[in-house]
Design brief:
The structure holds two protein chains of two kinds. By secondary structure, chain A is an alpha/beta fold. Chain A is built from 20 helices and twelve strands. The N and C termini of chain A lie far apart (51 Å). By secondary structure, chain B is α+β, with helices and mostly antiparallel strands. The chains are: A alpha/beta, B alpha+beta.
């Protein structure tokens, strides 16, 4: 089905339409250029000046260079604004909460956990970015814009996003087993049995890091019950003791509990980090056939295995479980741009980051997803990146990684709360009711604070 | 004049010691959001004894305090006394002391690799594999499983439940064998034609891309050569064995009339040594203790050796002259004379252990961290991760401080006495 002439024609036609629309938008922007100089392309605005300090998660190995290129692009339009980027790395939430507690936060930061943003918003530490809402309206679908709304106001811009509703597979292992990428969960399970019979465990699980497990649960929950219930559960409006959670955990148990079909068995899965779970699946000979994780798996495959795109590795969208339950919904993680202060220089930079030009600068070098639908998917450097990131451009429904959306004590602390409890579930996938109780009590105490 | 000399030191002390300490104590009575309107009284301290991860931390800290100082002092003492009698003692001392020179983080990473469950990576499990394989070597088809329900587990091997008579054919299909694990020389599987006086059959990889039909020998499925097949009579006794050829077929000749079962013995399926899960939640604390003792044994040895060299030799000589054996000299003279030094080591270790953080962070995988939790580590996770609850973090810090105080007081009193 994929790549059949009919479909390809449609894609080409859609691309043509999109191109035409983009041209229209450009013309419109050109007409309105006098009223909104900062949003038109190419014009320099030297009247805005000042410094912007930015604490970011991207270090030299994870995109500092690319973000600097985005800043350089910004400086072409605003030569007098000086953006000082500080690569903090993964300890960013710690650094930020310390800086905020000490009263000297940076001007801007990128935060990947909406729970942390919510916390800063509640504490009144963040400034709304409503000045950028018209630019965001133009470039992002409402579902995306909504991700940045906290307490009814726009506080954050989802600048860089990751598609988390993906499964990566070892192409030779699938070939040896004679299976193709599944589109339904039942098919996934029966394919997994076939893969096991072919002599390769089907699943590679990086359970040493709890987030890989919560991501799997979240995709299962989303694919079973759709976005509305997903949202309710992530806001704790549905309890973790709800029957829907039991259903999703039972489905997840069909994967985790098939221990002879998991690379390294249960104890191996508990000790493989995310990176090891990827290298296990794409080693030769493979130790497993597939990994359930986000678009950034592609980067790990490229940097630490010899597998080549299409012939060695490929990807498919998380298969549907309940037919019709928001089939096109995508679970995403997003680096959200937030501002702790409010100056013309900061406003200019936030607005710039919402433009398709800013997105295209990074997208060109890969490892970058965005919901900025005015950016053409054509800028992605290779077919696999295009396949993983294009769904973000067209997604009608977007949900945040649930565990990022919860209070960090519950949703994103190593070895504790949800992460720790899903590791417990991995050890004993039969105890659905027990784990539900523990999740609920951990959630209750985290939401109370 | 006094002020001029003491001033800078006092200022430093206030800025770096007194202010943070007071701040931490005050902060521990406030909630997550800070000072504004979040006075929570002793709630944070209640959390300390109700939160399950913190209860684990307290329990683990108790284990550490019970184990580490005693072991470190004892091992240090043994090393120190033995080193006195060894040539090249400087070289030995250096080797034992060396772990102290490595950062605890590096030690953690090193031991994490040593402890790895995969015997191909972890040195400790590699040793285990050598020992295990010497006793029982892994079978050629350790990953294989039967393709049809009629082939059932039997004493570690497999047995075809379908009864066989002379003239019968046994189909022993196996799956779960990766193509690269197939014995070399395997050819297309062949289902042998029945012979009136024989029991024949085939052992084959009952899989082709897409799965194939289980239990049916199909084009594209290879026989498994070199497998020993056993023929058992109705009492379960092995009456004949046969080896499969390159197309997987085997033949038991001249089988007397009766009912038989064919199967594959346990040795074919013997699993290789999979390694112990040293870093798993159940073994993580002992693993951490071993690594930590390894680091600190050198320290205790050096301190005790210094004490030994300062000890008056004439007392030892006098004891020996009076007819005391070496063990008696050690028990009744050396150890009592070393008591002050030993107690310094012991107390230092108690204080150290209450503050352990880095090795847990570096050595325990995330999935084991809650099982390995210690107070100082919990302080870090509560305060700086998990949403930055500085209230609970401060309460833990104060609690650690309270635990350390009596030990410190003891130490200070000893200093005074020594002076």
């Amino acid at each position: 089905m994929r790549g059949s002439p009919k479909v390809r024609n449609r894609v080409v036609r859609m691309a043509a339409v999109a191109g035409f629309m983009a041209a229209l938008v450009a013309v419109a922007a050109g007409c309105g250029g006098s009223s909104k100089p900062s949003e038109s392309t190419g014009a320099t605005t030297s009247s805005v000046s000042g410094n912007v300090t930015f604490d970011g998660i991207w270090t030299s190995s994870t995109g500092q260079k690319q973000f600097q290129q985005v800043i350089d692009g910004f400086n072409k339009q605003y030569p007098n604004v000086h953006v000082q980027y500080k690569p903090v790395g993964n300890s960013l939430p710690t650094v930020l909460s310390t800086a905020v507690a000490g009263g000297h936060p940076p001007d801007m930061a990128d935060i990947a956990q909406p729970g942390t943003i919510q916390q800063f918003v509640t504490q009144g530490k963040l400034k709304p970015i409503t000045y950028a809402s018209s630019v965001i309206d133009q470039n992002f679908a409402p579902a995306w814009e909504h991700l940045g709304v906290f307490n009814g106001k726009l506080y954050a811009l989802p600048f860089k996003a990751a598609n988390k509703s993906l499964v990566w597979y070892n192409v030779p292992a699938f070939k040896a087993a004679g299976v193709k990428s599944p589109t339904t969960f039942d098919q996934l399970l029966s394919d997994a049995k076939t893969i096991k019979a072919s002599g390769t465990p089907a699943y590679s699980i990086g359970g040493a890091e709890g987030w890989t497990l919560t991501d799997m649960f979240e995709n299962i929950y989303l694919r079973t019950f759709g976005t509305a219930k997903y949202q309710a559960l992530s806001e704790h409006k549905i309890k973790w003791t709800d029957p829907s959670v039991a259903t999703a955990l039972t489905s997840m148990g069909k994967i985790l509990g098939d221990t002879s079909n998991v690379a390294g068995g249960t104890s191996g899965a508990l000790q493989y980090s995310f990176n090891q779970s990827v290298t296990n699946a794409f080693a030769t000979p493979p130790k497993a056939a597939m990994v359930f994780e986000a678009d950034f798996v592609g980067g790990v495959i490229a940097s630490s295995t010899k597998a080549k795109p299409s012939t060695g590795f490929n990807t498919f969208v998380w298969p549907q479980i309940t037919p019709g339950a928001d089939a096109s919904a995508v679970e995403v993680a997003a680096d959200m741009m937030v501002a702790f202060h409010d100056t013309p220089a900061i406003e200019a930079f936030v607005k710039y980051l919402a433009t398709p030009e800013a997105a295209a600068i990074w997208a060109k070098s890969g490892g970058f997803g965005t919901g900025n639908h005015n950016m053409s998917a054509g800028v992605y450097p290779d077919p696999i990146t295009k396949a993983t990131e294009a769904p973000l451009l067209t997604a009608k429904a977007v949900v945040f990684d649930m565990s990022d959306n919860q209070p960090p004590a519950f949703g994103s602390t190593a070895g504790q709360g949800e992460w720790g409890l899903f590791q417990k579930f991995l050890q004993n996938p039969k105890d659905v009711a027990g784990i539900q109780q523990q999740l609920e009590s951990a959630a209750t105490s985290a939401y109370k604070k | 004049m006094v002020a001029v000399f003491l001033g800078p030191a006092l200022l430093m002390l206030c800025v770096w010691m007194v202010y943070p300490a007071v701040y931490t104590i005050v902060r521990s009575f406030f909630g997550q959001t800070g000072f504004l309107g979040s006075w929570v009284g002793i709630d944070n301290y209640k959390t300390l004894f109700t939160d399950s991860t913190l209860k684990t931390a307290i329990k683990n800290n108790a284990i550490w305090v019970a184990v580490v100082p005693a072991f470190v002092s004892a091992i240090g003492l043994i090393f120190a006394v033995l080193m006195e009698r060894v040539r090249w003692s400087v070289a030995f001392k250096t080797a034992v002391f060396l772990p102290m020179a490595i950062s605890a983080f590096a030690t953690g990473v090193t031991w994490r690799i040593l402890y790895d469950q995969d015997p191909n990576l972890g040195a400790i499990n590699a040793l285990g594999r050598v020992a295990h394989d010497a006793v029982s070597s892994p079978g050629v088809l350790s990953t294989a499983s039967p393709s049809t329900p009629s082939l059932q587990p039997y004493h570690g091997g497999l047995l075809l439940k379908t009864p066989l008579h002379p003239g019968g054919v046994a189909l022993l299909g196996l799956t779960g064998i990766a193509p690269q694990d197939m014995p070399s020389g395997a050819k297309q599987a062949v289902q042998p034609a029945p012979k009136p006086r024989d029991v024949g059959g085939v052992v084959w990889r009952d899989f082709k891309p897409g799965g194939g039909r289980p239990g049916v020998v199909e084009q594209g499925e290879d026989g498994i050569p070199g497998v020993t097949v056993e023929l058992r009579d109705s009492s379960g006794k092995v009456v004949q064995t046969a080896k499969t050829d390159s197309s997987g077929t085997f033949d038991f000749t001249d089988v007397p009339a009766g009912t038989y079962n064919a199967g594959v013995g346990a040795s074919t399926f013997a699993k290789p040594f999979g390694g112990y899960s040293w870093l798993g939640p159940s073994l993580i604390t002992p693993s951490l203790l071993i690594a930590y003792i390894w680091i600190w044994a050198g320290f205790s040895m050096v301190v005790i050796a210094a004490g030994l060299s300062a000890m008056p030799r004439d007392v030892l000589e006098a004891a020996r002259t009076d007819g005391a054996g070496e063990w008696q000299v050690f028990r009744r003279v050396t150890v009592p004379l070393l008591a002050p030094v030993l107690s310094v080591v012991f107390i230092t270790m108690v204080i150290n252990v209450l503050k352990v953080f880095d090795i847990v962070y570096a050595l325990a995988p995330e999935s084991s961290q809650s099982a390995a939790n210690l107070l100082a580590f919990a302080m870090y996770t509560k305060a700086f991760q998990g949403g930055g609850n500085f209230g609970v973090g401060s309460a833990i810090a104060v609690f650690i401080f309270l635990l350390v105080i009596p030990v410190l007081a003891l130490n200070v009193r000893r200093f005074k006495r020594d002076v």
